[in-house]
Design a protein that fits this description.
331 residues, two-stranded antiparallel sheet, 31% helix, 16% strand
């Protein structure tokens, strides 16, 4: 209970202070602005049945905050540059549009992303042209880097006439060395330019010693999955989304981190993803990993946080993916 004659004056003083404080509030935004599209997604893009949300207003909180306290982990987005071509989904933009590339990288930077790993399909095509746009834009953002991931499709669909896969890969990496390695924004590991690949070893028999001897610069090779850590010439390995698993890929990720963690001289590139659904992809086989209302995304971060800490850092993490609309993994 308040002392007699004390409560009312105190209440009046409080209300007077509150009123004064209220009159000093100045709006810095509007409801319309908070509901409008603040991403690099085309404003015309609508929700899809594979789990892609439409153009929206999303959090710009630094993605590193989802990691353990004191994390120094570099976070890279896996980037696809084939949109706008007739053999891919119409998502409302063209990857060959320099302004779109600028918007995407600005969007990434605003969320704390450190760079991109580009799914690359060989030289002298629209994807390569878009890669050059990424390089130019990345150079405008100090600390933001990019690296080339040679897709098996680069050899399958963009080889020199009559070349065996070995020679095709050599030609492509020589092109990468001349075109991209000199960029101040190209990703390096211990001073060496990073090269990774997607399923090249799965599809072809490659003599990586011969490939390396054909280059003037020794790359840092990042291979894939557990076996990537013991691959010839390896500098590390990356993990990926495994849509056919029944545990949202957590068992696979656990095994990958268990193998990579003791290897202090190798780069362990973890993976986070929101799910997977290729039912709208022309090449799809109805592989689906549910998003669980965001829990799949959070679980992949939680797996990292259960194993790593400020005294035992995860070197790098790849967001799988930034914009694969067709497989429902875009972030």
């Amino acid at each position: 209970m308040c002392p007699k004659n004390w409560c009312v004056p105190t209440l009046l003083l409080f209300l007077s202070s509150l009123s004064a404080a209220q009159t000093s509030i100045v709006a810095t935004t509007t409801l319309a602005a908070q509901k409008s599209n603040n991403t690099s997604t085309a404003s015309s893009f609508s929700p899809q049945t594979n789990g892609n949300i439409g153009a929206n207003n999303v959090s710009k909180v630094d993605v590193h905050t989802l990691l353990y306290q004191g994390a120094t982990t570099k976070i890279y987005a896996h980037l696809l540059l084939w949109f706008g071509e007739t053999n891919h989904m119409n998502n409302g933009y063209s990857s060959s549009d320099a302004m779109q590339i600028r918007n995407q990288i600005s969007d990434m930077v605003s969320r704390g992303i450190d760079g991109v790993i580009i799914d690359w399909y060989g030289p002298n095509n629209k994807i390569d042209d878009a890669t050059k746009l990424v390089m130019a834009e990345a150079e405008n953002h100090p600390g933001f880097t990019f690296a080339i991931m040679v897709d098996e499709g680069a050899i399958k669909w963009n080889s020199c006439l009559g070349c065996r896969p070995q020679q095709a890969l050599i030609n492509q990496l020589q092109y990468v060395e001349q075109t991209y390695f000199p960029s101040k924004a190209y990703m390096t590991l211990q001073g060496k330019p990073v090269i990774t690949n997607f399923n090249v070893d799965l599809a072809y028999s490659i003599n990586w010693n011969e490939v390396t001897q054909s280059l003037s610069t020794q790359p840092a090779y990042i291979f894939q999955n557990n076996s990537g850590f013991t691959h010839i010439l390896t500098d590390g390995s990356y993990s990926w989304v495994m849509p056919t698993t029944t545990d949202y890929g957590i068992g696979y990720l656990t095994s990958f981190y268990d193998v990579g963690m003791p290897l202090l001289n190798q780069e362990t590139v973890g993976a986070t993803y929101k799910g997977f659904n290729d039912t709208l992809a022309s090449w799809g086989s109805n592989r689906i990993m549910g998003q669980q209302c965001g829990q799949t995304w959070l679980q992949t971060f939680s797996k990292v946080n259960s194993l790593y800490n400020s005294g035992n850092q995860l070197p790098a993490l790849q967001l799988v993916t930034w914009n694969d609309y067709e497989e429902g993994t875009g972030n």
